[in-house]
Amino acid sequence: MAGLATAFGSGAMTNSIPEIEDAECILVTGSNTTENHPMIGSRILRAKEKGKKLIVVEPRRIHLAQFADIHARPRLGTDLAWINGLINIIFAEGWEDAEYIAARTEGVERLREKVAEYPPERVEAITGIDREMLHEMARLYATADRAAIVYAMGITQHTGGTDNVLALANLAMVTGNVGKRSAGVNPLRGQNNVQGACDMGGLPNVLTGYQSVTDPAVRKKFEQAWGLRSGLPAKPGLTVVEMANAAAEGAIKGMYVMAENPILSDPDANHTREALENLEFLVVQDIFLTETAQLADVVLPGSSFVERDGTVTSTDRSVQRMRKVIDPPGEARADWEIICEIARRCGGQGFRYASPGDVFAEMARLTPIYGGMSYERLENEWLRWPCRSADDPGTEFMHKDRFSRGKGVFTPVDYREPAEEPDEAYPFMLTTGRIMFHYHTGAQTRRSPSLEREVSENYVELNPQDAHGLGVHPGELIAVASRRGSIQVKAALTPTVPKGVVFIPFHFAESAANALTNRALDPVSKIPEFKVCAVSVARLVTL
Amino acid sequence: MKVSKEVRDIAEEILRQGQVGGVLGLSSEHGHVGPHLFSSTDDLGTLVLEPRYMLAKVCRMILADFPGERLGVVARGCDERALIEMAKLGQVDLSRLDLIGVACSEAQARECACPHPYPRRIDVGEPVQGVAFADTECAQQASEQDLVARQAFWTHAFSRCIKCYGCRNVCPVCICAECSLEDASWVARGKISPEISFHLIRAFHVADKCVGCGACDAACPVDIPLTRLYAQMREKMKEMFGYEIGLDVTNKSPLTTTLEEAPLHGL
Amino acid sequence: MDYRTVLTTCPYCGSGCGMYLPVLNGKLGEPIPAKTHPLSQGRLCIKGWSAHEHVASHDRLTKPLVKTGSGFKETTWDEALDLVVTRLLELRDRHGPDSLAFLVSAKCTNEENYLQQKLARAVFGTNNVDHCARL
């Protein structure tokens, strides 16, 4: 999200989900939308049925690709080159929106110079995308009246992830596609409340609503509202991968983990495990004894999504109610009650709430983008942030007449190679992701019989030509190894993956893809490079 | 609005008489509409009639869990036909149900291409003419497109399928305890789009049961016009066997009876 | 006769699909997609349709656990919370607030996330707060 915040002043889907089906052209990249955001994928398919254009840029032949007007398959980790290449063609052909650029943006000259370094022949050499195809992509996207970009972790989970997002923002602004209906730059968030967890200040550098911890006026507002005698910390904290590093080094001694499973979700699982084992004290609050909870000193039983009240914020900024349906099992408690109880026992002031509605009201008072929301309004209205006052109807698409930061800023960015490239010892590139039938670390879905029936064990997608070269048969158990670890996993031979690339879902603890992945981080967003690392693939027995 | 008032009045009446444990209908709360069991007259103020949900499957679950009780249900033509088909399969006991029969409007009938847009006994609303098969999109497609074009149309539609099982889950007549769609010997697991067998099995399984309620169409995330496919099967059942689905509980499906009992006509 | 439906939001991806969860005779049933929902329009994917299944899993934690030499042992809330509070305060006092770290959750509510970061910042004095947004 750091990229969009730099470009527009605010990091979230610029447009809303229903608008997507009326975009004249949709550019999907780094998102296996029909599998991982099926109800957004369905909007894209519907747009296609209405005769709109669809461009899919994705190394794997994902389900959505068969419906695309153009499916470009760049080499892993080369996204920045094709995005800059598109902008270069757009300038060369005069397809940019000059009026919009002049009125609403700044820094176009530097961008023009930078993208001139990406002529089609160079882009083709880096990405493998044919130059004529690239030209046609530029034409479809730039000449459409309303063009929407949809992306997900395939763009961000790289050491150059923030730059990729900045480049997509450049592409959208050059063509005047930010601030209008059915257009925009739309990151799809992977979990039911990942947007909300960010909005609520669940990040090391900001309090709620992206108010910076380094801003003294912000801290003062919160100190007063929370009745604190001592000041709030001013120095940004550590991100999750940095926390693991600090724990391994002994700088972090205690952790309180609520409903997260870093052992499976974080890169380089062996390292994460060592880090958590090195802690003096670990408390995990969850509904299952997850791989992470197994390492805890204390495990607190929390509640599932049907066992407490609250709100969540979807990827398009819609704030919705979660409602309690049944009581938690046994002595399990609502998570909000557990946190308040811990705070009170620590002598914390201001942790007495009658209900989640009271918590929401306090949060909304302190958070301008949620300032106009309340449980009362959410009962009958559909509200997307920003929603600043009681009579503010919320925001369907953002940056309509001006950007959150005033003018949109172009940031020229350069292609860099991934942190790890294939070599003789590790000749394949591994990319990881999710599949239709499971979700994240599988804590919930692997305990759902209907989902487990569809897919109950891990697999590695391997191109049939590569398999032939290695002598690997369909369904054979093979070894996949990186510099960090190795797993045994069943081979699924499929042209879905290009030659030289393997794909492994990360839902499966028994052969965890993240034992292999690299914890190299994007320098700004601190996102790890899950989407490309070097691995070897080998048969377990040679007959 | 007048129609929902009339339905409320009847629901209030049967609740007051104490003949049923509750009345199943639709309720509007939090700005949304969903199925609701009205168990006292106090909450009838939220009763509405649209958007339509298929309530027959909910009836079946409630009746099964509360064996001693009677249930009221706001029922349109398709709800009643679904209940009749379920009764034929021993899934519901119609004598334990009090139907508040609602006739659909002409616009609603057209929207669903419904052949019988009203239940046998109409308590609220006026019956309108059903849509003849010849006037449906299904029939038009059959007359305008040749087999190759139709196959291309359906292959394309099925290729969008993301295997949510929504069509099966909402279907009032898909009631098997063990479902062939989940059987790996019929449909490979864990693959999208699923093989065409997924859709053909469903089409054949509902051929003699589909009441044309449209619930599968409405639940399909990728807009596959399933009722168009099933309508064709239904029409074949009528042509070949003179069999009409959902009208009479004593009229059993020719596909489940022996040839002696129901000789094949027209073959 | 006990049958009710409660409108809520799917717990899986970030699309925010709307579903009614039915409770029949005290037992949670299969979701009913909410037709009036502007995002999901009465549709769900297979994960949404199965969203209720993990809730009734036999693996659910029902009591606080503490680790002993021979593995986990069930304990009371009082004992578990006392231990958590004592140990976290002790580490903070001995090594400073930044020796602690807190993970909020993309699977919890806004209210829970707000409270967890408030606990980290206001009670323990650290900005070491994050979650799996990047993962």
Give structural notes.
The complex is a heterotrimer of chains A (543), B (267) and C (135). By secondary structure, chain A is an alpha/beta fold. Helix content of chain A is 32%, strand content 17%. Chain A folds into 3 domains: 2-188, Dimethylsulfoxide Reductase, domain 2 (3-Layer(aba) Sandwich); 194-384, 3-Layer(aba) Sandwich (Rossmann fold), CATH 3.40.50; 428-539, Barwin-like endoglucanases, CATH 2.40.40. In chain A, strand 18 (477-481) and strand 19 form a beta hairpin. The longest helix of chain A is centred in the N-terminal third of the chain and has 15 residues, at 79-93. In chain B, strands 1, 2, 3, 4 and 5 form a 5-stranded mixed sheet that branches. In chain B, a hairpin with a 2-residue loop joins strand 1 (23-29) and strand 2. With 135 residues, chain C is an alpha+beta fold. Chain C has 3 domains: 3-56, ADC-like domains (N-terminal domain of TfIIb, Single Sheet), CATH 2.20.25; 62-95, no CATH class; 98-135, no CATH class. The longest helix of chain C has 19 residues, at 77-95. Classes of the chains: A alpha/beta (543), B alpha/beta (267), C alpha+beta (135).
Summarize the structure in short:
Chain A is an alpha/beta fold and about 550 residues long.
Keywords:
heterotrimer; A: 543 residues; alpha/beta; Dimethylsulfoxide Reductase, domain 2; Rossmann fold; Barwin-like endoglucanases; 6-stranded mixed β-barrel; 5-stranded parallel sheet; 20 helices; 21 strands; B: 267 residues; 5-stranded mixed sheet; 10 helices; 38% helix; globular
